[in-house]
Write a structure and sequence with these properties.
The chain has 256 residues and is of the alpha/beta class. It has eight helices and six strands. Strand 2, helix 4 and strand 3 form a beta-alpha-beta unit. Helix 2 runs parallel beside helix 3. It starts with a helix and ends with a strand. Bound molecules: farnesyl diphosphate.
C-alpha cells in the first residue's frame, strides 16, 4: 500500500494525512475483496523496517490502526471476515495489540474471508523466527533435523496459513517486493500499479485481478495442453501436468 506520503506531500499536506486517506482506501478494498469472494487478503500495513521512521509518523500509524480496527469490528463480524495480525505483534503498543487481540478472538470462527494485517512484519524475520522455533525443538530432542524440510518450515510461517500468495500487488509505482511474504510469494504473480495507494479504488483491484486471470501460471511445469500433446506423441516426451485451475485468490497488497 505504497504512496500515502507522496500523495499527501503532492497536495501540500503532512505525510500522516496520506496515511489517514490511505486507511479509507483500505476500507474500500477490503469491502471490494469480500464482494468479489476472495478467500484471503493480506495487507502490508507496517513493516519491521517502518519502526525506523520518525516517531511522530509511527505514532500516527498506530493511532490509525487502532481507529481502523475499532471502526471495522462490526463489519468484519457482519461479513464473516476473520481478522488476524501476522508479524512481531508483541512489538506493537498495547493500545493497538489489545484491540487487535480482542477482534482476532471475536472473529476467529469466521470463514468466508481472512483479512491478515502484516504488522511489524518482515518476510526474512518471519523465516528466521520459524527456523529458530524448529531449531529449539530439535535441540530439545522433539524434532529430528532430518525432518526439517520445506513443509516443516512452511507450517511455522503464520503468513502461510491461508496458503501461498497468488497475486501480489504493489501500488505507488515501486517495483520491489521489499521483504513482504518472501516464502509465500515464491510463485506469486506480481502486479505493480503506478497509482498511489490513497487513489486506489475498486476498479484498480478489478484491473489487477483481470491481469492475474490472464497470466499463465506453470509453477515450473509445462502448460497442460502442451503436456497432453507431448503425452500423445509417446512416453519419451515431457509428461508434466499443468498448473490446473487457479484456486480462490489469496491476494497480498504490499507496502515497503
Ligand atoms: C508505505 O508507503 C505505507 C505504509 C508504511 C503504511 C500503510 C498504512 C496505511 C495504508 C494506513 C493504515 C493501515 C490500516 C490497515 C488501516 P508510504 O506512504 O510511506 O509511501 P511514500 O513515502 O513512498 O509515498
Amino acid at each position: 500500500m505504497d504512496g500515502n506520503g507522496r500523495w499527501a506531500q503532492q497536495l501540500g499536506h503532512p505525510r500522516t494525512y496520506g496515511h489517514r486517506v490511505g486507511s479509507d482506501a483500505v476500507r474500500r478494498i477490503v469491502r471490494a475483496s469480500r464482494r468479489l469472494g476472495l478467500s484471503a487478503l493480506t495487507l502490508y500495513a507496517f513493516s519491521e523496517q517502518n519502526w525506523a521512521r520518525p516517531p511522530s509518523e509511527v505514532e500516527a500509524l498506530m493511532d490509525l490502526l487502532r481507529e481502523f480496527l475499532l471502526s471495522e469490528r462490526d463489519d468484519l463480524l457482519a461479513n464473516d471476515i476473520r481478522l488476524r495480525g501476522v508479524g512481531r505483534i508483541e512489538r506493537l503498543p498495547s493500545r493497538v495489540r489489545d484491540v487487535l487481540e480482542r477482534i482476532t478472538d471475536e472473529t476467529k470462527n469466521n470463514r468466508t474471508m481472512t483479512l491478515s494485517l502484516a504488522l511489524s512484519y518482515g518476510g526474512r524475520e518471519e523465516i528466521a523466527d520459524a527456523a529458530r522455533r524448529l531449531a529449539e525443538r530439535a535441540v530439545a530432542g522433539a524434532l529430528s533435523p532430518a525432518r526439517i524440510d520445506e513443509a516443516a518450515l512452511e507450517a511455522e510461517l503464520p503468513s502461510m496459513s491461508v496458503g501461498a500468495v497468488d497475486l501480489l500487488v504493489r501500488t505507488g509505482g515501486e517495483q520491489r517486493i521489499s521483504n513482504f511474504m518472501l516464502w509465500g510469494a515464491a510463485y506469486a504473480e506480481l502486479y505493480f500499479s503506478p497509482a498511489l495507494w490513497p487513489d486506489w479504488v475498486e476498479a484498480d483491484l478489478y484491473e489487477a485481478i483481470t491481469a492475474y486471470q490472464q497470466r499463465d501460471r506453470r509453477f515450473g511445469k509445462v502448460r497442460s495442453d502442451v503436456a497432453s500433446a507431448a503425452d500423445a506423441r509417446g512416453p519419451t516426451q515431457a509428461t508434466t501436468a499443468g498448473a490446473g485451475p487457479a484456486p480462490a485468490i489469496p491476494v497480498a497488497l504490499g507496502a515497503r
